[in-house]
UniProtKB/TrEMBL annotation:
PANTHER family: PROTEASE M3 THIMET OLIGOPEPTIDASE-RELATED, PUTATIVE-RELATED. It comes from Deinococcus budaensis. Residues 170-558 form the Peptidase M3A/M3B catalytic domain. Its EC number is 3.4.24.-. This is Oligoendopeptidase F. Belongs to the peptidase M3 family.
């Protein structure tokens, strides 16, 4: 059964009552008024968790609906009203509930709640009343990025395309066609760049004030505490940037030099480099394994059947339940993500597929997130114990990109599958410099750039970093003002300081796949077991449960790069 848009709309329906604070207020008040001794805490937490899930589900559905309709003012206004009316009151109520919990005499959290309890303590210490309303402003500003980019169009040879559709043309083996697509995309990006420049300056002011209100020296300190980063430091991140620069960038450069030589190119130009889908060294057409979202669903379902029937059943549940929206269309946010509705324990995947092999990889990635939601939701009754810390949360998705590699024979011919597999491995090498650059930019922006950096400062720093991490792309004779706007990316606007986790988890995913080459059943069992742990154990323990180490140091990166080079050369296949 193929999901229709109407089925998606039904899933995302939120009652008018659920957008109003007075719907939830009496239950928060009852929790606050309850007599609470240590013995009563577990039952009281269960009630709070159920209420938190209801509020969270309403907000998640409204947010997703807004992302599917960036051009609908009524849909946008409904979500904005929830953010303005409900979210601030919930933050205040939850701070009061947290203080009530922390004040219970003689209470000691159970082992599976100890981490959540510690995070409650940290969140309570970070809370400031002044940041409640400012947080609404911050969220509204971030949402504006989705509206600006969701309504962006690209004109190519007189045809109006969505951004994902135009990016697909970058995969053409015809170099003039790639260049035309690149120039059309950069022209479109240039049209919205002034709006994004202005929005970023607003965000920087807001983020600076959030930190000041919390009595912290800068936004990096604020986010470090909000994201509960207790297992590594900013200095560890800097060491990671340097390790990628020294260990991975040269490998990526050699990879691109070899590719250019095989294609007869003197140099790699911006239209010759798509880190998500490198050009075919034989100049063949890009892989086009499907033509519609419905076909992709069917093909992916068969891959999951080959991997694990139970996981295939989860995916079938998503298909039949209106939990997938895959097609690219105007007025739809151009990013891809997995949302989660905690009351129903339902994940929802939003994508913008256009028929590429990269779409296949991204679907496996997002459905890996969905499996995490399903499994942790079934085993962890408290909503705070579902999913996992952000340092782990990309492992379920990235590992799924690798675990499905041996189950795609129905989707690709043997030759095509070899190409797809090679691109997946090359993609790790190409991704790590980008991840290091994204993380390094944000460390600079929020801890080193000074009190009020200008747009010119942002552009100059991005240009410096891009020359460091992507020296193999030749921009001679081109407007480097275009290159300097590479920081205008989703995560910089909407998920600040969330990017190094992709690198951590990609390294772990390669490790899981390395184990799966020797023990497929054991690796898959460990993978699923780690997902079920949710948020109940520290990050290093989650990694160990998945069969890997929590490491992103130079020696670890060097070892995994050697493994990838061996796989790319055909060793161990």
């Amino acid at each position: 059964m193929t999901t229709t848009l109407n089925a998606v709309e039904r899933v995302l329906t939120v009652s008018e009552e659920a957008t109003r604070w007075n719907t939830f207020a009496p239950r928060y008040q009852a929790l606050l008024a309850a007599d609470l001794g240590a013995d009563a805490v577990p039952g009281w937490l269960a009630e709070w968790s159920a209420l938190d899930a209801e509020v969270g589900q309403a907000g998640s559905k409204l947010a997703t609906h807004a992302d599917l309709h960036t051009d609908d003012p009524q849909v946008q206004a409904r979500y904005a009203r929830f953010l303005e009316e409900v979210s601030p009151q919930v933050q205040r109520a939850e701070q009061a509930l947290t203080e009530k919990l922390l004040a219970v005499p003689g209470y000691a959290p159970a082992p599976d709640f100890a981490l959540a309890y510690r995070r409650f303590q940290d969140a309570a210490a970070l809370f400031r009343e002044a940041n409640v309303e400012l947080g609404v402003t911050h969220q509204a500003q971030m949402n504006r990025h989705g509206v600006i980019t969701g309504n962006q169009t690209v004109t190519l040879h007189g045809e109006a395309l969505t951004v994902p559709q135009a990016r697909q043309r970058m995969d053409s083996p015809d170099r003039p066609a790639r260049e035309a697509a690149w120039r059309a995309l950069t022209l479109s990006a240039g049209e919205v760049a002034p709006q994004l420049d202005a929005l970023m300056l607003e965000l920087l002011d807001t983020r600076r004030q959030l930190a000041a209100n919390a009595d912290l020296p800068g936004f990096r300190d604020f986010m470090w505490r909000r994201l509960d980063r207790v297992d590594y430091t900013p200095q560890d991140c800097r060491a990671f940037h340097e390790a990628v620069r020294d260990e991975v960038v040269p490998l990526a450069a050699r990879m691109m030099t070899d590719l250019a030589a095989r294609l007869g190119l003197e140099r790699v130009r911006p239209w010759d480099y798509n880190r998500n889908n490198l050009l075919d060294p034989q100049g063949r057409e890009a892989l086009k394994p499907f033509t519609s979202g419905a076909e992709l669903e069917t093909l992916a379902g068969a891959a999951f059947e080959g991997l694990d029937p139970a996981l295939a059943g989860r995916f079938r549940q998503m298909r039949e339940g209106g939990l997938l929206d895959l097609e690219s269309r105007p007025g739809k946010m151009t990013h891809a993500y997995c949302q989660y509705f905690p009351v129903d324990n339902q994940p929802f995947v939003l994508m913008n597929v256009v028929g590429t092999a990269e779409d296949v990889r991204v679907l496996f990635h997002e459905v890996g997130h969905a499996f995490h939601g399903f499994l942790s939701g079934e085993t962890q009754p408290l909503v705070w114990n579902r999913w996992s810390p952000i340092e782990f949360v990309e492992i379920p998705s990235m590992a799924m990109e690798f675990l499905t590699l041996d189950h795609l024979g129905h989707m690709f011919s043997p030759e095509e599958l070899a190409r797809y597999r090679e691109k997946q491995l090359q993609g790790v090498v190409a991704f790590l410099p980008w991840a290091a650059q994204m993380d390094a930019f944000q460390h600079w922006l929020y801890a080193e750039a000074g009190e009020r950096p200008s747009v010119a400062d942002l552009d100059a720093k991005w240009l410096e970093l891009d020359r460091t991490f992507h020296p193999f792309v030749n921009w001679d004779g081109l407007d480097e003002g275009v290159r300097a706007k590479g920081w205008q990316y989703y995560h910089v606007f909407q998920a600040p300081f969330y990017y190094i986790e992709y690198a951590m988890c990609y390294l772990a995913a390669v490790g899981i796949w390395r184990e799966a080459r020797q023990d497929p059943a054991g690796a898959l069992a460990r993978y699923q077991a780690s997902l079920r742990l949710g948020n109940t154990v520290p990050v290093p323990e989650l990694y160990r449960a998945a069969g890997v180490e929590f490491r992103f140091d130079r020696d670890h990166i060097r070892g995994l790069m050697a493994f990838l080079q061996g796989q790319l050369a055909g060793a161990g296949t």
